[in-house]
Design a protein that fits this description.
This protein has 241 residues and is an alpha/beta fold. The chain has one domain: Ribonuclease H-like superfamily/Ribonuclease H (Nucleotidyltransferase, domain 5, 2-Layer Sandwich). The protein has helices at 51-57, 70-81, 91-105, 112-115, 121-128, 136-143, 155-171, 180-185, 208-225, 230-237, and strands at 2-10, 21-30, 33-42, 85-88, 117-120. Strand 2 (21-30) and strand 3 form a beta hairpin. Helix 6 (136-143) packs across helix 7. The longest helix is centred in the last third of the chain and has 18 residues, at 208-225. The two termini are 21 Å apart.
């Protein structure tokens, strides 16, 4: 089973007020294991970012001026998620913004739920922990997921943290275990279930500045983990060509 943990950042909270996407980030899991592959892009929203959103994300208007618009990346993005199971925290928010962007491009693009099954981890958390705070930070604290590197809201790190939270809520697995080391010690062969896609997605590459920012965040995770974090190990063990 191919699952995509997805997070977005936006210019503001209300899609009905014309707010737009400024970042889409996806982390891929196959058979509940991170593959190290991801999709991430910033977007030019053609409008100003609200002050509240700017403070939460740390993204400035000027940073987005040379970034692609949603119409420029829609084909790559849809090819990447098509047929997968999407895992999103507060899916109504993210899917609402994605559907609004698709609607701007015409009816032929349909809606996200036409292409993917969607799991909302906020709904799951409210059912499991009624009456408690169920934000991503609160769930990380409750489930023992280290979020010390999350100084600002960022699509990719939030998706990585949500993957750990989801696995913990659905299997009791607090820390992602790739399962490679134990099998190698026992001399066992490790086989990954192949993913069959009807077309190969073209993934947008992060620029040097974005890569540097992401590496700093992974450094923070490594420091907190006392060694290579699971995402560092997954990234170094699997390269998307």
């Amino acid at each position: 089973m191919r699952q995509i943990v997805l997070d977005t950042e936006t210019t503001g909270l209300e899609v009905r007020q014309g707010h737009r996407l400024i970042e889409i980030a996806c982390v891929e899991m196959v058979e509940r294991r991170p593959t190290g592959r991801h999709y991430q892009t910033y977007l030019n929203p053609d409008r100003a970012i609200d002050e509240g959103a700017r403070q939460v994300t740390g993204i400035e208007d000027e940073f987005l001026l040379d970034k692609p618009r949603f119409a420029d990346v829609v084909e790559d993005f849809l090819a990447y998620i098509d047929g997968a199971e999407l895992i999103i925290h507060n899916a109504t928010f993210d899917v609402g913004f994605l559907d609004a962007e698709l609607a701007r491009l015409g009816e032929s693009y349909g809606r996200i739920r036409d292409r993917c099954n969607v799991i909302d981890t906020l709904v799951m958390a409210r059912e499991r922990y009624p009456g408690q705070r169920n934000s991503l930070d609160a769930l990380c604290k409750r489930l023992g997921v280290d979020n010390s590197a999350r100084d600002l809201h960022g699509g990719l790190i939030d998706a990585q943290l949500l993957a750990e939270v989801y696995l913990s809520m659905t299997s009791g697995q607090v820390v992602l275990d790739l399962g490679f080391e134990g099998a190698q010690e026992q001399g066992a062969a490790v086989a990954l279930t192949p993913v069959v896609l009807d077309r190969r997605p073209r993934v947008l590459r992060a620029n040097a500045e974005e890569c540097e920012t992401h590496e700093r965040r992974l450094d923070g995770l490594d420091k907190s983990a006392g060694g290579a974090s699971v995402w560092r190990r997954a990234t170094t063990s699997t390269t998307l060509n």
